[in-house]
């Protein structure tokens, strides 16, 4: 039996094309959102050549393929007539959190390899700089950093294309909206405002009536994902009202104009202000109690990174260095990274598939080196109990170091190689916090996720 025949059988055994709401894939699995899960013949699918396993989890039917999943997905889409979703009525059982996590996982899944590769390079470079193996001001560091940082700086473009596939809208229109958010005129204006340059403005005005707030959207997550979601509805609305003779030219024209304005005027600033609100909230926590602040900051840090709002914490830390000469927030970020690494290492230990173990180990090491996106988006969004375990460990470890007043006297990446920066009166507490974060997250993940492992290995929730 060839691959295409196996794919045709999968479609038949999940209840036919009419039973498929949507199909997408992650690093190793085909994932189905089905109308009626009871129509699935799971045991028959497991017996198909090339299929490594199958399971129904959290309103998703998952077929494990392994490293060839992308090829299978492309043939699956072709077999479905070039459309990975159908017009079947969607189920209403998913909760808001589950839907959000599934969407984030679906958007980030295809771009995990790029994030993981760049994250590993960035983390290793930070370690070499922290250990003074290379000078932070050398051309070598500049060149390696641009290789590693390019993916994160231009992350909105990657997200736009991936989100367009999830939300069923033209990928190039989505990239065009991301380009509007990333255009140098806007970024330069944001930088001028941040550095208080003469003539800097907080908004640009369209027709002297519509304000476009000045923000730097590089490396942002929430603004671009929701902008593409809005774009998908705008496109369908414009296409429906546009006469057939004008659709070729004016549907994309009007869609891009309205979609870009919605992103620039409403969606983008809303995402940024959510981040700023988080920053003000954190500042207020420290005025109550450092330990309480550690408990809360440690708990929200993984979610903040997941939503892209963690960048709002950086200005607070920088201002603390300027005003006080030290900062207590960045050590908490360090604890969160170590907790994320610990949970990801636990998933790596529990996994049985070689491809899954390879991807997960790379993400875990990257988190250990200070780059948590591969671990969060590539692993923990698929294992919700592991994500909860990391959050608990991050919260407890952050409260612990805050109680003992652990602080930093200069900005540095929150990596395991950052430990030398803590050498001094607080070093022993910082080291203990790292151990706490790693051990608690690892043990909790093993207990909560490991007991659900079956047969071929642990399965995503």
Stretches with pLDDT under 50, minimum 5 residues: 86-92, 453-457
Distance between the termini: 31 Å
**Spatial extent as radius of gyration:** 23 Å
Mean pLDDT over the full residue set: 82
Helical run tally: 18
Indicate the percent of residues in helices. 55-70%
Largest β-sheet summary: 4 strands, antiparallel
Which range does the strand content fall in? 5-15%
**Which structural class should the secondary elements be placed in?**
alpha+beta
Seen as an oligomer or otherwise, the chain set is single chain
Number of strands: 6
* Strand/helix succession: HEEHEEHHHHHHHEEHHHHHHHHH
Strand order of the largest sheet: 1-2-4-3
Q: Overall 3D geometry?
A: globular
């Amino acid at each position: 039996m060839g691959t295409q025949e196996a794919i045709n059988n999968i479609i038949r055994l999940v209840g036919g094309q009419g039973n498929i709401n949507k199909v997408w894939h992650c690093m190793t699995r085909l994932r189905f959102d089905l109308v009626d899960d009871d129509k699935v013949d799971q045991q028959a699918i497991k017996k198909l050549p090339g299929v490594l396993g199958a399971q129904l989890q959290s309103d998703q039917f998952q077929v494990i393929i392994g490293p060839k999943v992308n090829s299978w997905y492309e043939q699956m889409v072709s077999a479905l007539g070039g459309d990975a979703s159908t017009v079947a009525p969607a189920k209403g059982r998913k909760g808001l959190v589950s839907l959000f996590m599934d969407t984030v996982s679906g958007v980030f899944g295809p771009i995990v390899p790029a994030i993981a590769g760049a994250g590993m390079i960035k983390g290793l470079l930070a370690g070499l700089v922290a250990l003074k193996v290379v000078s932070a001001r050398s051309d070598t560091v500049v060149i390696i950093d641009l290789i590693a940082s390019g993916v994160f700086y231009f992350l909105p473009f990657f997200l736009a294309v991936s989100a367009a596939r999830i939300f069923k809208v033209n990928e190039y229109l989505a990239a065009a909206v991301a380009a509007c958010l990333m255009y140098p005129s806007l970024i330069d204006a944001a930088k001028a405002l941040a550095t208080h340059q003469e003539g800097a403005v907080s908004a640009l005005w369209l027709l002297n009536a519509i304000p476009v707030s000045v923000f730097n959207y590089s490396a942002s997550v929430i603004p671009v994902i929701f902008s593409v979601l809005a774009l998908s509805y705008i496109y369908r609305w414009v296409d429906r009202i546009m006469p057939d003779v004008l659709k070729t030219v004016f549907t994309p024209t009007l869609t891009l104009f309205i979609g870009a304005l919605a992103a620039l005027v409403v969606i983008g600033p809303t995402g940024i202000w959510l981040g700023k609100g988080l920053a003000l909230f954190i500042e207020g926590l420290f005025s109550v109690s450092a330990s309480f602040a550690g408990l809360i900051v440690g708990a929200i840090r993984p979610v903040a990174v997941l939503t892209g709002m963690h960048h709002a914490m950086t200005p607070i830390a920088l201002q603390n260095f300027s005003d006080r000469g030290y900062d207590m927030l960045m050590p908490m970020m360090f604890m969160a990274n170590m907790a994320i690494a610990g949970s990801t290492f636990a998933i790596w230990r529990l996994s049985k598939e070689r491809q899954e173990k390879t991807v997960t180990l790379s993400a875990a090491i990257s988190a250990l080196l200070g780059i948590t996106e591969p671990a969060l988006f590539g692993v923990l969004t698929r294992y919700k109990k592991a994500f909860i375990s990391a959050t608990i460990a991050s919260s407890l470890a952050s409260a612990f170091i805050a109680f003992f007043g652990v602080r930093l006297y200069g900005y540095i990446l929150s990596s395991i190689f950052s430990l030398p920066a803590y050498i001094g009166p607080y070093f022993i507490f910082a080291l203990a916090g790292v151990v706490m974060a790693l051990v608690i997250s690892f043990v909790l993940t093993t207990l909560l996720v490991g007991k659900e492992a079956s047969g071929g290995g642990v399965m995503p929730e």
